[in-house]
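Task: fold both queries, return C-alpha cells.
Query 1:
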Amino acid sequence: MWRFGVPDTVETPPSAKARWRAQLQGGSPPPTATLSLNITPSADSPVGEYRLSARLRGEEKALGGLVLLFNPWCPEDSVFLSDEKEKQEYVLNERGVIYRGSADYISSMYWDYGQFEEDMAKICMRILDVNNENLRDPAGDAGARRDPVYVGRVISAMINSQDDYGVLQGRWGSDYWGGVPPTRWNGSYAILRRWFDSGCRPVKYGQCWVFAGSVGSTKRLDITNTYKYTEGTVLERMVFQYALIGVEGGWRVRGNAEAVEINGPAAMNAPRMERNRVGVPVANSSESPEAPTPQLLLAFEEVSKPLKGEDVQMRLWLKNDSPQLRELSFTLSVQAMRYNGTPAGKIQVEEAERKVEPHKDLSIPVVVPYSSYRDLMVPNGSMNFSAVVTEKGAPDGVFMAVHCVALENPPISIKVSSPCRVGTETSAEVVFMNPIDGTLTDCCLTVSGSGLFKKETTFRLPDLRPNVRVRVKFFFVPYKSGERSLLIDFDCSSFRDMKESCSVTVKP
C-alpha cells in the first residue's frame, strides 16, 4: 500500500522501495468541488492491479482500480527503449512471423499476438495471480513483480500447464481428441481468451511454436519487451538456419515436456552427421588409420519441387572417383517424419544392384507416388530419403546419404475488397482447388485477425470433388484502424491446416 497526498505531506517509510506522486491538474485548485489529479507511480513499482481511494477530512472513498504495467517509454523504467523503432517492433507490433521447417526447407507463417484485444490486461494479470509463486508466497511474489526478469520467467513457466494453472497443455503425436490440433492456431488471443473464460483450465493443445507465440503476446502487453527479434529479416533467417544446423548437435528450444520448465535455448552435445553430407563412409571405430578406400560419392537431388498431392520425384547420384569398376548393392528407404524429427512410418523401400564405371557417374531415379505416402503424410510435413550402398568384395565399403524433403501445400489464395474502414462492412474471398484424384471431406475454413474479428470464425464447407474449385466469400466489420492482418486456416481430410494471410489497411 502506498499513501501520497496533495500537498504531499505523507511521510514515506525508509523501507519503502517505491514512491507515488499526485499533482493537481493545472497546478492550482479549481473553483468548483471537482479535483483533477495527475497520479505518477514510481518507475520501480510492481506491475499488477491496484485499487485507488481518496481521503478528505477523515472520509475515505473508493475511486476505482487501475492496472500498472512496465513502461518502455519511461527513461527510469528498467525496460526503457530509447529507439522508437524498437518500441514499434517489440511492443506495439501486433503481428509476428514464426519460422518452421528444416534447415533446407524453412517456411514462415504469420502469428497474431493480439496484445491489445479486449480483456488482455485482465488475462495477463490473471496469469500472474495464479502462478505457483504467488499461491505459495503472495507478498513475496507481489514485491518481485517490479523486476521484468522475474515477470518474464513467471510468464514463461505459466504458458505450459505442467504442474500449475498454466495456459496450454502440450501434446506431441497425432491424436488431439478433445482439443484443437497445435497446427490450427493462428494467434494467441483465442488461446488466452479460452483459458481465461474457462476459469484457468489448460487449453488443448500446444507445441513449441504455439507456446512461443503465446508468450510473445503476454510479454508484449507492455509487461516486458524482451521476446522476439526483428521479424522477417535476412539476419533472422540466417540465425534460424544456423540454429537448425546446430553446434555440437544443435539447439534445443524446449526440454522434457513432462518436467517443470523455464524457457531458454540449451546446446545439445550429441554426435551428429552434417546435413546433406554425401558419400559418408560407415566405418568401424576400431579400425586402424590406414590409407582409406577410394570414396564413392552419393547425393540426392530434387527433380521438381515437392508438393503434397503429387508424386515426389528425386534422383540419387553416385560418383565413382576411382580407376576401378565398382559393383554396388544399395537400399533406398523413404520415411514420413514428424515435425520434431522422429519417424512416423515407412513409406517405401527399394533394393537393387548397380555397376559404376571408373570415373563415371550413375543416376538412379527415385519416385514416391502420392498413393504411397498419402495417409502417412496427412499429419506430417516432411519425408526422409536415405541410401545405404555396399561395395561387393570390400567389407569396409559401406556408404550412406540422407536427405530430408518438406512437402509444400497446394496453393490457396485470399483477397479483400477495398477500401476498408472502421465500422463499415467489407468482404473477403478465399479460393482453393482440390488437386488430387479424390474427394476432400471434413473441409473447414477458420478466419481471424486482430482489429478485424472479435473472435475466430469457422465456416463448415461441403465435400470438394477432384479438380473442383471452391470460393468462400465472407463479411466482417473492422473495429480498429491501421495495418491489419487477415489470417486463414483451411483444413480437410487430406491437407491439414493450410495457412495463408494478407495485409489489410483499415482507414478510420
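Query 1 returned. Query 2:
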Amino acid sequence: MEMPDAMEMIFQSALILGRRGGVEDLMGDAETAALLYSKAAHLLVFLLVEAPSLILNPPFSLTSRDRYRLRSYIEILNRRQGYLRSNACGISQVQRQAMPHLK
C-alpha cells in the first residue's frame, strides 16, 4: 500500500497494535488484547473513512484493493475484540454464579 508518510505511520502503528493485541491474546490477557485490537481498528477506520477527505499534498487516496484490505483488517480486529469481550462477560457471570457471596 503506497501512502503519504503520515498515513503510512498510522497504518504501521495499527499493524503493530494489532500484533501486540495478538500476543496479549495468546498470553491470556484478554482485557489488554481487546484494548489493543480496538486501538488498531480505530486507526484503520480513520484511514478508511476520514483520511481520504483530508486536504493533503500529495492527496491521499485508496485503491479499491486497499479499501477492501482495510475493511478486512477492521472486521477481523472487531470480531476478535467482540469474542474476547463476550468471553469476559461469560466468565464474569460464571464466577458470580459460582460465588454468590460476591454479588
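Both queries returned. Flag for query 2: The two ends are 51 Å apart (CA to CA).
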